[in-house]
Amino acid sequence: MEIIARESLPIGGFAGLTEHRLVTDSRVFSHRKPLNTFEGLGRFVYLADARFDLYV
Questions:
Q1: Half-sphere exposure of 51 (CA within 13 A, CB side)
Q2: Is residue 50 part of a domain?
Q3: How far apart are CA 26 and CA 45, in angstroms?
Q4: Is residue 47 in a domain?
Q5: Most Cβ neighbours (<10 Å): which of 18, 31, 42, 51?
Q6: For residue 18, what pLDDT band results from cuts at 50, 70 and 90?
Q7: 31-49 pLDDT, tens per residue?
Q8: In this structure, are residues 23 and 39 in contact, taking their beta carbons and an 8 Å threshold?
Q9: Are 17 and 4 spatial neighbours (Cβ–Cβ below 8 Å)?
Q10: Average pLDDT for the chain
Q11: pLDDT for position 56
Q12: Looking at the whole model, is its pTM more than 0.85?
């Protein structure tokens, strides 16, 4: 098991959403895959923890 600290995850988002990307599959994201995210598994290619920032 590998533990990744939330503070070390890349932050992204759009339209008032802020997301911490946990899983990005290199087959989908190729050279845009951050190194500190988990690799996907089968059809599981993306997972992010997102929240809506009301006052952005």
A1: 6
A2: yes
A3: 8
A4: yes
A5: 18
A6: confident
A7: 888 888 889 999 999 988 8
A8: yes
A9: no
A10: 85
A11: 59
A12: no
